[in-house]
Amino acid sequence: MLVTLKELLDQAQEEKKAVGAFNGSTLEAIRGIIQAAEELNCPVILQHAQSHDDLIDLEEIGPIMKYYAQRAKVPVALHLDHGSSFERCVQALRLGFTSVMYDASAKSFEDNVKETAEMVKIAHAVGASVEAELGHIFTSEIVQGEGSSYDKKDDYENLDDIYTDPEVAKEFVEKTGVDCLAIAFGTTHGVYLTEPKLDLPRVAKIRDAAKVPLVMHGGSGVSEEDYKAAIENGICKVNYYTYMNTAGGKASKEYWKDDTKPLFYDSMSLAATEAMKEDIKEAIKVFQKK
Q: Which amino acid positions bind Zn(2+) 2, per UniProt (predicted)?
């Protein structure tokens, strides 16, 4: 059942739960995500990250994602993650996506407000939702390509300069009309080398000031205790990809270790799907308090 992001997150906010947002960069991932949500009878967000265009283009994977979302037995929001241009966001909307993230967080506050507000007008005109980002979310070196840069807390003298400010978030939401806001409070995209230290009180302050559902990017590696505290404080959407992807990779590796198994790619593919599904189910249980 295809629904908007706003529908899912407004309900999650009311129930003090979070909806998992999982990247469907392959057919195996898409199947694993939908199967996990259906087995737990929980809503889910199926998303394509623009950074995965090197794996498969939105024009190719989008219709497949929509096919599975429409036929799912549970509510599914179809979402573009980290859209960096109007053109890509509009492309997603034309493909039937029910929400887009317009990410202008690297730009000045003024430009972020101006451009996000325009995207909100476009998306709302066709009944879709908009996510935006305010602040800076760290990136692990493990998710970067060779020669790419990454950053960590030690690179900054004052974390207040890059973490989301509650009053600035309030102003941003009022001026843009976004449906939800991705915030910076200590999480990191990619594989954690050490357990992250999250500024959880900041999340509650942003929730009270901005009054919209909040989004956690860089969800892998966070402890169950911190997840629950973050959700209690206002997180309603959790982006989760690296660890589910790793689970699929490990299952593939294990499959080929057994010399008695036939060298069939499709059999290995099913093993990877099953592993991702089980990892996603465990994440959903935490987010939905099951």
A: 103, 133
